[in-house]
Design a protein that fits this description.
The complex is a heterodimer of chains A (316) and B (457). Chain A has helices at 3-15, 22-55, 72-79, 81-113, 120-132, 135-145, 152-159, 175-183, 188-199, 203-211, 216-244, 248-256, 266-275, 280-308, and strands spanning 58-59, 67-68. Chain A is mainly alpha-helical. In chain A, strand 1 and strand 2 form a beta hairpin. Chain B folds into 2 domains: 24-148 and 328-368, Periplasmic binding protein-like II (D-Maltodextrin-Binding Protein, domain 2, 3-Layer(aba) Sandwich); 150-326 and 391-455, D-Maltodextrin-Binding Protein, domain 2 (3-Layer(aba) Sandwich). Chain B has helices spanning 3-26, 44-60, 77-86, 99-104, 113-119, 128-132, 156-162, 187-197, 228-232, 251-266, 273-276, 341-352, 356-363, 370-383, 393-396, 412-427, 436-455; strands spanning 30-36, 64-70, 93-97, 135-136, 139-140, 146-148, 150-155, 175-176, 182-183, 199-200, 216-223, 291-297, 311-314, 318-319, 322-323, 328-334, 366-367. In chain B, helix 2 (44-60) packs antiparallel against helix 13 (356-363) and helix 16 runs antiparallel to helix 17 (436-455). The chains are: A mainly alpha (316), B alpha+beta (457).
Chain lengths: 316, 457
């Protein structure tokens, strides 16, 4: 190669587009493969979230012109008696449901973790099975089971001597207990996570406690509970958020049984406002209000978790 | 991306645009869109018949192309229609839909009175009471298509067992008590005989000393599957809001609320919510064979195939000498922003006229047009041989209360929910200790608040 042709080759190489480095190429293709999700998230999640926040400041009724009304929906929210009543219903129910939905699966898990219980695999399956039943079918079954007149529960109660058993679904004093009872059918998942966590507790800890003469209750309180506390925290957060989203049971009960106003949960009120009354602006405000409550409760739980949740790797 | 790929894509895009535009260019017909799903009509077998009706219409003339658009079901249909309206692409025709569905979109329907006048469409074939039900204020928003008159369904076997005569089949005819006494066929008489027809597990009826209301196995009467506004309207129709924007529920509605409360909690011949949802009423109240009389519309003939009893029909009882038989109505409406109202009205006439019979059959409905009614009854009579009194159906149309029991008022959806809550309290466990007058006053006050909110006052 002569010097002329060599310098021409260098010039051509300098003018050609630069080849991408491996890192750049990987980054590019990474974005390409992520882009369907990013586009989907932006269009179908982020944009509706932002739009709903905007709608909460609008008078937005389906079929009518939408216009800006500032904080009016938010003002209505704190004065609307139905909102306050439904929030009260949700809180009242939560005070019963929250402890039960943590303690009951915890008790079941502790029982299934005990070496004194026989037939554990069968019991595990039995406790988990209702979780797999579709919610609507389960509610219909419970509705029949809890009927004050012909339900099996009251038949059993009458058999064992209760002359006047509760009218579970139509008595304000009992309806929330009945709904908690219905909810117990879905504890299989929480039970399983707690059981898995219990089975992961190092046996040396129990052996050491035995040497120290600790009883079963002390072992549970001092070893099991702290060791599984992250899983309890996880279930507590999920249950609290689930409480804000509690909808299917009251919706089915109120649409099929002409049930009482005690089933008017905040999420049902939100649904009716949006899809029955078509008041989308106010419904958006309600949705954000629910989100704010859920967020505050979650922050509160995490704030207290430092005191009762044990992380073997240190604080998170 | 190589240049060839880009070229292919550009050519493909152009081709798609050209091909997409071709049918529009070739089509000179006015396109009328028909939205189905707000009421019935989304079942696959119904869709096939509706498609055929549309095809027959399209084949019958050269000016209009009828295109059907189906919603998935009637749960999602309001959202779909809302979106179409919000996007300013409303369908021309919506239906079949009942009055409540129509009121969900109040203010969206075209007043077809000018089109009726312009085309000379004959409204005199229908009763005034029926036509009134299709009015929103002064505007006529639909034509009679499917009507479902209110009736009394009675279980003849249970009447025979109690030694009672059957309810009358003619308006104004008396009820004959077992001792031969003639009583007016009104709600007081219903209460009297319903008590005899209400029986507990020990065989005592509700007039006897030892009757146990906590263990009833057979009830005398129910207002079944209906709104409480409809129940109230058996004592007379009423507008919810007067001309001054005030909610003044009539005293005869309060009277009916008291009648129902007594029926459920004092005389026990009407079931409470607990009984309604118990195994006693499976698959549902009258079809269980455990209820002697029920007031419900003609559409309930949909669901009595498994009733192993001789049952029949009678006229609705009167209140203070007048009879009011709440009626359900399904029809088609033209959207107010339809680009082609005249063409849409042509289609509307076809759907309620020439094309009505297959549609009525598909929906299991009874015709509003008198000349089509006999065919509908024949079809039902073949299914239910125990029914002798089909003759009560047609005259009951003329006893529809005015205004209609689902008529619109400001804040309609919220107001209807409030009525529903009233019914829930009345029938629920707390109903036994209810001060029915105070609850009725509360209903009126709450409705006033809803109306005020909706009216912006």
């Amino acid at each position: 190669m002569n010097s002329q042709s060599a310098s021409a080759g260098v010039a051509a190489a300098q003018n050609a587009p630069r080849a991408w480095s491996i890192e750049k190429r990987q980054r590019f293709w990474g974005w390409v493969f992520l882009s369907p999700w990013i586009v989907g998230f932006t269009l179908f999640t982020a944009f509706p979230i932002a739009a709903s926040l905007l709608f909460s400041f609008m008078d937005f009724k389906i079929g009518e012109e939408m216009h800006f009304i500032g904080l009016k929906n938010w003002q209505t929210l704190v004065t609307d008696p139905i909102t306050l009543q439904s929030l009260g219903v949700t809180i009242k129910f939560g005070l019963i449901a929250l402890p039960v939905s943590i303690l009951f699966p915890l008790a079941l898990a502790a029982m299934l973790n005990s070496k004194h219980v026989v037939g554990k695999p069968i019991l595990r399956v039995l406790f988990y099975m209702p979780y797999m039943v579709p919610a609507i079918s389960g509610i219909f079954i419970w509705q029949s089971f809890l009927n004050g007149q012909t339900g099996w529960l009251n038949r059993l109660l009458r058999l064992i001597g209760f002359v006047d058993p509760p009218n579970w679904l139509f008595d304000s004093a009992w309806i929330h207990s009945a709904m908690v009872l219905i909810g117990l059918w879905g504890v299989g998942n929480a039970m399983l996570t707690m059981l898995a966590s219990m089975q992961g507790v190092p046996t040396e800890l129990y052996e050491a406690a035995d040497v120290d003469g600790a009883g079963p209750f002390t072992k549970f309180r001092k070893i099991t509970f702290p060791m599984i506390s992250p899983v309890i925290l996880y279930n507590l957060v999920l249950t609290t958020i689930g409480l804000m989203q509690y909808f299917v049971v009251p919706f089915v009960l109120s649409s099929t049984t002409r049930s009482n106003p005690d089933t008017n949960f905040i999420n049902l009120h939100l649904y009716r406002t949006a899809f029955q009354f078509f008041d989308m602006g106010y419904a958006a405000a309600l949705a954000w209000f629910l989100f704010a409550i859920g967020l505050l409760l979650t922050i509160g739980i995490f704030a207290t978790s430092r005191r009762w949740v044990y992380y073997s790797g240190g604080d998170l | 991306m190589s240049k060839n790929v880009v070229r292919v894509m550009v050519v493909g895009l152009i081709l798609a645009l050209v091909l997409g535009a071709l049918p529009i260019a070739a089509q000179d017909k006015i396109v009328v869109t028909w939205f189905v799903g707000l009421g019935t009509g989304t079942q696959p077998e119904q869709q096939a018949i509706q498609d055929q009706v549309a095809a027959d219409f399209n084949a019958s003339q050269n000016e209009i192309e009828l295109v059907i658009s189906y919603a998935g079901n009637n749960q999602t249909a309001p959202d779909v229609l809302s979106t179409l309206i919000a996007a300013q692409t409303p369908p021309d025709i919506v239906g079949p839909v009942g009055v409540t569905g129509r009121n969900q979109f109040a203010g969206q329907w075209l007043d077809i009175q000018p089109l009726v006048d312009a085309t000379g469409y004959d409204l005199t074939q229908f009763s005034d009471a029926l036509i009134e039900s299709y009015r929103e204020g002064d505007a006529l928003v639909g034509l009679p298509f499917a009507v479902y008159p209110g009736l009394i369904y009675y279980n003849a076997d249970l009447f025979d067992e109690a030694g009672l005569n059957y309810p009358p089949t003619e308006f104004g005819a008396p009820y004959i008590m077992p001792d031969g006494t003639e009583m007016p066929w009104d709600f007081n008489t219903v209460a009297e005989i319903a008590k005899i027809l209400t029986v507990d597990a020990s065989g005592n009826d509700a007039t006897m000393e030892g009757f146990d209301p906590s263990n009833i196995v057979q009830f005398g009467f129910d207002h079944q599957w209906d709104t409480i506004r409809s129940d109230f309207s058996t004592f007379g129709g009423a507008a919810i809001v007067n001309e001054d924007g005030q909610v003044v529920l009539p005293e005869y509605w309060r009277e009916h609320a008291r009648w129902m409360w007594n029926a459920i909690w004092v005389d026990h011949f009407m079931p409470s919510a607990t009984y309604i949802n118990s195994d006693l009423f499976q698959p549902h109240a009258f079809a269980s064979g455990n209820i002697a009389m029920t007031r419900v519309m003609l559409w309930y003939t949909c669901c009595l195939g498994d009733l192993d009893a001789n049952w029949d029909l009678a006229v609705i009882p009167s209140y203070e000498g007048n009879t009011y038989a709440p009626i359900d109505l399904d029809t088609f409406h033209i959207h107010k922003d339809s680009a082609n109202p005249e063409a849409a009205f042509t289609v509307l006439q076809y759907l309620t006229g020439e094309g009505a019979l297959p549609l009525l059959t598909a929906y299991g409905a009874y015709a509003g047009r008198p000349e089509l009614q006999e065919a509908g009854i024949q079809a039902k009579a073949e299914i239910y041989p125990s029914v002798n009194n089909w003759s009560v159906v047609a005259p009951s149309i003329d006893y529809a209360p005015i205004p209609h029991h689902e008529s619109w008022y400001p804040g309609f959806a919220k107001g209807q929910q409030r009525f529903s809550d009233f019914a829930a309290v009345l029938r629920g466990d707390a109903g036994a200790d209810l001060d029915i007058d105070a609850e009725f006053d509360k209903l009126q006050a709450d409705l006033q608040a809803i109306v005020d909110e909706a009216s912006g006052s």
